[in-house]
What does this fold into?
Amino acid sequence: MDFFIYTYRSVLNMRNSRDWDFYFCSLESQPASIMVNLAQKHIYTQEETPHLLSLRVPLLHPNEYGLTSYQEAEVLYLMEDQIAEHIIFYLGARYVARLTSRGQREYFYYCKTKIDADNIIGEIMGEFPDYLYEYQLYHDPEWSLYHEFLYPSPMEYQSILNRHSVNKLEEMGDVLVKPREVTHTLAFPTFHALHSFTEELQAEQFDVLDTFCEEKEEKSFVLVMSRVDAVDQYTIDQLVAWILETAQRFEGSYRGWKTKVIKRQLFGSDFSSGFSNNFSS
It folds into this structure.
């Protein structure tokens, strides 16, 4: 029972947990939001919970994009907590993700057992008589759906990190749309790959600030480059997506970006605080 209480409380607080995060993507040309437990990727006892349970609930009041509306948010949070309480306790489950898209919300659990699942889910949803539901329960011992669909792609994960950095800047009073120097760091397996990548940069007006060899567990060749850009979410996502996609053609990896905080004074022009922080993604 102690294990259940600990797990359940952690689920209730997941919206404030560092293990959980969300990202936006497109499903069948429609916007989607996925809240996912990122920490589960590094759990090495997945064989203990081989049964995938997906519980799908049509929304009563979706917004114009088919996502959750403020009108319905509170009852959905309550439903989510009730589902977690029952499924984690009775089915020995791990809650891994929540998907919202096309006017529906879907909850994903990996369970130790599937005994009596129909009665358990029926009891939960009986508390919410206005909502229809359907569920699927099938064998997925490799957690394929989690790894191949629910877990963010490299660019989706980078967008999560970008959002964290942009939020930090905004909290510090940054004028996000104000162009300023943004420094990016990448690593490549060979100097030839690094050099080939820099040739791609010539038309994009990046300045190469530094290159060096780094010898840790594996040798890598590091590139530090910069360009003047805004750092609002859309601009930085588009920019980093291009850098990451281009670097991957040369087996490169993207390590992150940093910039200075640019604040707007109440009177007068914008100014740099002189504080440089590494909002590394």
About this structure: The chain has seven helices and eleven strands.
